[in-house]
UniProtKB/TrEMBL annotation:
Stated name of the protein: SDR family oxidoreductase
Residue stretches in coiled coil: none
InterPro entries noted in UniProt: NAD(P)-bd_dom_sf, Sc_DH/Rdtase_CS, SDR_fam
Family designation: Belongs to the short-chain dehydrogenases/reductases (SDR) family.
Keywords per UniProt: Oxidoreductase
Native species: Streptomyces siamensis
Amino acid sequence: MPVAIITGASKGLGRALGAALAERGWDLVLDARTAGVLEETAVALSAYGTRVEALPGDVTDAGHRAELVATARKLGGVDLLVNNASALGAEPLVRLEDLTLDGLRQALEVNVVAALGLVQEALPLLRAAEAGTVVDISSDAAAEAYETWGGYGASKAALDHLSAVLGEEEPGLRVWAVDPGDMGTDLYAAAVPGDDDPRPAPDSVVPAFLRLIDERPASGRYSAPALLEER
Protein backbone atom coordinates (compact mmCIF):
# COMPACT_ATOMS: atom_id res chain seq x y z
CA MET A 1 0.00 0.00 0.00
CA PRO A 2 1.21 3.57 -0.60
CA VAL A 3 2.26 5.54 2.46
CA ALA A 4 1.61 9.22 3.22
CA ILE A 5 3.02 11.49 5.90
CA ILE A 6 0.63 14.32 6.77
CA THR A 7 1.55 17.04 9.24
CA GLY A 8 -1.07 19.02 11.11
CA ALA A 9 -3.36 16.05 10.61
CA SER A 10 -5.52 15.99 13.74
CA LYS A 11 -8.26 18.19 12.26
CA GLY A 12 -9.15 20.49 9.40
CA LEU A 13 -7.65 19.89 5.98
CA GLY A 14 -5.04 17.44 7.28
CA ARG A 15 -7.65 15.13 8.75
CA ALA A 16 -9.95 15.46 5.73
CA LEU A 17 -7.15 14.55 3.34
CA GLY A 18 -6.05 11.69 5.57
CA ALA A 19 -9.57 10.28 5.61
CA ALA A 20 -9.81 10.42 1.81
CA LEU A 21 -6.48 8.64 1.41
CA ALA A 22 -7.34 6.01 4.03
CA GLU A 23 -10.58 5.31 2.19
CA ARG A 24 -8.44 4.63 -0.88
CA GLY A 25 -6.25 2.18 1.05
CA TRP A 26 -3.28 4.39 1.89
CA ASP A 27 -1.30 3.79 5.06
CA LEU A 28 -0.76 6.98 7.06
CA VAL A 29 1.74 8.61 9.38
CA LEU A 30 -0.01 11.52 11.08
CA ASP A 31 1.50 14.40 13.02
CA ALA A 32 0.00 17.09 15.24
CA ARG A 33 0.91 18.87 18.45
CA THR A 34 -2.17 17.85 20.46
CA ALA A 35 -1.84 14.18 21.34
CA GLY A 36 -5.42 13.51 22.40
CA VAL A 37 -7.06 14.97 19.30
CA LEU A 38 -4.51 13.28 17.06
CA GLU A 39 -5.19 9.89 18.63
CA GLU A 40 -8.93 10.33 18.12
CA THR A 41 -8.29 11.10 14.45
CA ALA A 42 -6.02 8.07 14.07
CA VAL A 43 -8.67 5.78 15.55
CA ALA A 44 -11.33 7.19 13.25
CA LEU A 45 -9.17 6.85 10.13
CA SER A 46 -7.99 3.34 10.98
CA ALA A 47 -11.63 2.26 10.65
CA TYR A 48 -11.01 2.22 6.89
CA GLY A 49 -8.79 -0.82 7.46
CA THR A 50 -5.41 0.79 6.76
CA ARG A 51 -2.45 1.23 9.08
CA VAL A 52 -2.46 4.60 10.80
CA GLU A 53 0.42 5.76 12.99
CA ALA A 54 -0.12 8.86 15.14
CA LEU A 55 2.99 10.70 16.31
CA PRO A 56 2.29 13.79 18.41
CA GLY A 57 5.05 16.37 18.30
CA ASP A 58 6.35 19.63 16.88
CA VAL A 59 7.56 19.71 13.28
CA THR A 60 10.23 22.24 14.24
CA ASP A 61 11.91 19.46 16.24
CA ALA A 62 14.42 17.61 14.04
CA GLY A 63 14.09 14.48 16.16
CA HIS A 64 10.33 14.43 15.63
CA ARG A 65 10.76 14.83 11.86
CA ALA A 66 13.20 11.92 11.83
CA GLU A 67 10.70 9.84 13.78
CA LEU A 68 7.96 10.57 11.26
CA VAL A 69 10.12 9.38 8.39
CA ALA A 70 11.41 6.34 10.29
CA THR A 71 7.83 5.30 11.02
CA ALA A 72 6.88 5.67 7.36
CA ARG A 73 9.92 3.61 6.39
CA LYS A 74 8.66 0.76 8.59
CA LEU A 75 5.32 0.93 6.77
CA GLY A 76 7.04 0.65 3.41
CA GLY A 77 8.41 4.08 2.47
CA VAL A 78 7.13 7.55 1.64
CA ASP A 79 4.99 7.98 -1.45
CA LEU A 80 3.43 11.29 -0.41
CA LEU A 81 4.53 14.00 1.99
CA VAL A 82 1.98 16.69 2.87
CA ASN A 83 3.39 19.73 4.66
CA ASN A 84 0.17 20.99 6.18
CA ALA A 85 1.22 22.13 9.67
CA SER A 86 1.16 25.93 9.83
CA ALA A 87 1.71 28.80 12.24
CA LEU A 88 0.18 32.26 11.88
CA GLY A 89 2.86 34.24 13.70
CA ALA A 90 0.21 36.14 15.65
CA GLU A 91 -3.24 35.16 16.92
CA PRO A 92 -5.25 37.12 15.97
CA LEU A 93 -3.37 38.51 13.00
CA VAL A 94 -1.95 42.01 13.29
CA ARG A 95 -0.57 44.70 11.01
CA LEU A 96 3.13 44.50 10.20
CA GLU A 97 3.90 47.44 12.48
CA ASP A 98 2.64 45.33 15.39
CA LEU A 99 3.96 41.93 14.33
CA THR A 100 6.64 40.81 16.74
CA LEU A 101 9.82 39.52 15.18
CA ASP A 102 9.54 36.40 17.30
CA GLY A 103 6.10 35.83 15.78
CA LEU A 104 7.49 36.19 12.28
CA ARG A 105 10.31 33.80 13.15
CA GLN A 106 7.77 31.26 14.39
CA ALA A 107 5.80 31.44 11.14
CA LEU A 108 8.96 31.02 9.09
CA GLU A 109 10.24 28.21 11.33
CA VAL A 110 7.04 26.16 11.10
CA ASN A 111 5.88 26.99 7.59
CA VAL A 112 9.23 27.04 5.79
CA VAL A 113 12.19 25.70 7.75
CA ALA A 114 10.41 22.69 9.24
CA ALA A 115 8.75 21.88 5.92
CA LEU A 116 12.11 21.83 4.15
CA GLY A 117 13.62 19.83 6.99
CA LEU A 118 10.97 17.15 6.60
CA VAL A 119 11.45 17.08 2.84
CA GLN A 120 15.21 16.63 3.33
CA GLU A 121 14.59 13.81 5.80
CA ALA A 122 12.15 12.04 3.50
CA LEU A 123 13.89 12.70 0.18
CA PRO A 124 15.67 9.32 -0.17
CA LEU A 125 12.38 7.48 0.33
CA LEU A 126 10.47 9.85 -1.96
CA ARG A 127 13.05 9.29 -4.70
CA ALA A 128 12.75 5.52 -4.25
CA ALA A 129 8.95 5.61 -4.52
CA GLU A 130 7.25 4.80 -7.80
CA ALA A 131 5.44 8.14 -7.73
CA GLY A 132 7.08 10.26 -5.02
CA THR A 133 5.10 13.40 -4.31
CA VAL A 134 5.39 16.46 -2.08
CA VAL A 135 2.37 18.67 -1.38
CA ASP A 136 3.11 21.97 0.36
CA ILE A 137 -0.04 23.69 1.58
CA SER A 138 0.06 27.31 0.45
CA SER A 139 -2.37 30.19 0.78
CA ASP A 140 -3.92 32.96 -1.27
CA ALA A 141 -2.02 35.26 1.10
CA ALA A 142 1.22 34.01 -0.46
CA ALA A 143 0.33 35.70 -3.75
CA GLU A 144 -1.97 38.56 -2.73
CA ALA A 145 -1.51 41.45 -0.29
CA TYR A 146 -4.10 41.36 2.48
CA GLU A 147 -3.92 43.65 5.49
CA THR A 148 -2.70 41.80 8.64
CA TRP A 149 -1.71 38.69 6.64
CA GLY A 150 1.84 39.94 5.94
CA GLY A 151 3.86 37.63 8.18
CA TYR A 152 1.87 34.50 7.39
CA GLY A 153 1.70 35.38 3.70
CA ALA A 154 5.46 35.98 3.54
CA SER A 155 6.13 32.56 5.04
CA LYS A 156 3.81 30.87 2.56
CA ALA A 157 5.36 32.79 -0.34
CA ALA A 158 8.75 31.48 0.78
CA LEU A 159 7.32 27.96 0.91
CA ASP A 160 5.95 28.41 -2.61
CA HIS A 161 9.40 29.35 -3.85
CA LEU A 162 11.06 26.40 -2.13
CA SER A 163 8.45 24.14 -3.72
CA ALA A 164 9.18 25.57 -7.17
CA VAL A 165 12.93 25.11 -6.79
CA LEU A 166 12.53 21.59 -5.41
CA GLY A 167 10.43 20.73 -8.44
CA GLU A 168 13.29 21.87 -10.69
CA GLU A 169 15.94 20.04 -8.68
CA GLU A 170 13.95 16.79 -8.39
CA PRO A 171 12.43 16.12 -11.82
CA GLY A 172 11.61 12.55 -10.81
CA LEU A 173 9.17 13.78 -8.17
CA ARG A 174 5.99 15.81 -8.28
CA VAL A 175 6.15 18.89 -6.05
CA TRP A 176 2.96 20.89 -5.76
CA ALA A 177 2.30 24.03 -3.76
CA VAL A 178 -1.47 24.04 -3.37
CA ASP A 179 -3.64 26.95 -2.29
CA PRO A 180 -6.67 25.23 -0.75
CA GLY A 181 -8.78 28.38 -0.91
CA ASP A 182 -10.99 29.86 1.78
CA MET A 183 -11.95 27.28 4.41
CA GLY A 184 -13.63 27.19 7.78
CA THR A 185 -10.77 25.98 9.97
CA ASP A 186 -9.45 26.56 13.47
CA LEU A 187 -6.49 28.34 11.87
CA TYR A 188 -8.76 30.89 10.23
CA ALA A 189 -10.79 31.31 13.41
CA ALA A 190 -7.57 32.05 15.31
CA ALA A 191 -6.43 34.47 12.61
CA VAL A 192 -9.66 36.46 12.41
CA PRO A 193 -11.79 35.76 15.49
CA GLY A 194 -15.32 37.02 15.29
CA ASP A 195 -15.61 36.56 11.52
CA ASP A 196 -18.74 34.41 11.31
CA ASP A 197 -19.15 34.44 7.53
CA PRO A 198 -19.75 30.86 6.34
CA ARG A 199 -16.79 29.21 4.66
CA PRO A 200 -16.41 25.85 2.88
CA ALA A 201 -15.58 22.83 5.00
CA PRO A 202 -12.07 21.43 4.48
CA ASP A 203 -13.38 18.16 3.08
CA SER A 204 -15.04 20.09 0.23
CA VAL A 205 -11.64 20.84 -1.35
CA VAL A 206 -10.18 17.34 -0.93
CA PRO A 207 -11.35 16.24 -4.41
CA ALA A 208 -8.92 18.81 -5.86
CA PHE A 209 -6.02 17.14 -4.07
CA LEU A 210 -7.18 13.70 -5.19
CA ARG A 211 -7.32 14.98 -8.75
CA LEU A 212 -3.68 16.05 -8.52
CA ILE A 213 -2.69 12.66 -7.14
CA ASP A 214 -4.62 10.83 -9.85
CA GLU A 215 -3.57 12.96 -12.82
CA ARG A 216 -0.04 13.88 -11.65
CA PRO A 217 0.38 17.16 -13.55
CA ALA A 218 3.76 18.87 -13.68
CA SER A 219 5.28 20.26 -10.52
CA GLY A 220 4.05 23.78 -9.80
CA ARG A 221 1.57 25.92 -7.90
CA TYR A 222 -2.11 24.99 -8.05
CA SER A 223 -5.37 26.39 -6.71
CA ALA A 224 -7.82 23.88 -5.28
CA PRO A 225 -10.88 26.02 -6.14
CA ALA A 226 -9.65 26.35 -9.74
CA LEU A 227 -9.12 22.59 -10.00
CA LEU A 228 -12.65 21.99 -8.72
CA GLU A 229 -14.12 24.46 -11.25
CA GLU A 230 -12.41 22.63 -14.12
CA ARG A 231 -14.03 19.32 -13.31
